[in-house]
Each structure stands twice: as C-alpha cells, then as structure tokens.
What we know:
The protein has 4 helices and 14 strands. With about 200 residues, it is mainly β. The protein has one domain (about 25-190): Electron Transport, Fmn-binding Protein, Chain A (Pnp Oxidase, Chain A, Roll). It has a 7-stranded antiparallel sheet, with helices on one face. Strand 9 (about 130-145) and strand 10 (about 150-160) form a beta hairpin. The protein is globular and about 50 Å long. The N and C termini lie far apart (about 40 Å). The model has no long low-confidence stretch (mean pLDDT about 95).
Amino acid sequence: MFYRPEDGHGLPHNPFNAVITPRPIGWISSRSADGVNNLAPYSFFNGVAYTPPQVMFASTGSKEDQDNTKDSMANIEETGVFCVNIVSYAMRDAMNASSQTLGKEVDEFAHAGLTAEDCQTINCARIAGAPAALECKLTKIVTLPGVSNRVAFGEVTGVHLRDDCMKDGMFDVTTFEPLARLGYRDYSRVTEVFSLARPDD
C-alpha cells in the first residue's frame, strides 16, 4: 500500500502513529502564571542531546480556553519551565485520566489522584513517586506547519531517579516497566531488555 497524506489514506483509522512505534510518553507537568498545576501526557516526546541534556515534546492540538494551543504549551510559554515525568505501567490509569480535556483552572494532579511535589531547580510541580522526572528550562518553542503544531525544547536542569529503580549503579527500566504509546488506542510496556555491542566499542 502507498498513499500521499494530502490525498488521505482511505483506511478506517490513520496508520501514521502505528508506524512510528513504540513512542516514549512524556508526562509533562507545568504551572500557570496564576499557580495552577497542569499535567498531560504527550507521545511526541524524546531526548535530543546529551551535553547539555535536552528534551523535546510536541503539542498538536488546542483548547477553547487557550489561544490555539493546549494548557501545557501556554503555561510553558508564560513561565519558561516544565517537568517531564516518566510513566510506569502501574501509573497507566492515572496517566490516562490526566489526558482528559479539562478547563485550564483544573489541577490534573488532583483529578488523576496524584500527589504533586515541588521541583528543586524550577518553579513547577512533579509527580511524587514517578520512576524519574526531568526538570527543564525552556530553550525554544518552534511552530510547525499545520494547525496548532508546536514543539517545546528544554534543557534538563535537574534529574530525579527513584531509588528502587537503581540496580548496580544503573537505572533499570524493568523495575517499573515504562509505558510506551503505539498506534490507535494501543500501548505497550517494557518488561525485558537485551544489549548489543556497537561495532566500534
């Protein structure tokens, strides 16, 4: 099968997200200038540089009570900071609950039954008990072609690693089974890993 996106795919559901899988989920926490905590999952998320460590996430939608964007992007534009929380399999229902479209005055931490804990290097909340969290200072927001497509880049200024996830000095993802986004309404979790030596090692 071949199709041009501009012509449509002719399938019951768009296959694009099913092709780019698995995708890590950035559970982005932010705080409005008025002090309201916000939390939302984004699967267009990844690390983009080691030194200094940097991440990105893309927001591809909008809400009626925000100006052509979502709460996360609006808050980050106002305050210049955000936090990436890593989603464990055990937190899948809370993550899903935080994806609900709610008014910008609603605290998604409370809505999803999660405890907010202040970050150490930025004025933002993080999820207490998350396997890891990356405190980030905004470096750039890029507007992409299309409606409401925006990418936020951030430099990591603080890293939280849950103690029980550390094994022999390494961050062991099998201890919390990170959640990954697939296509459609599908998810997966990492339960086992294997290593490959690089040819130039």
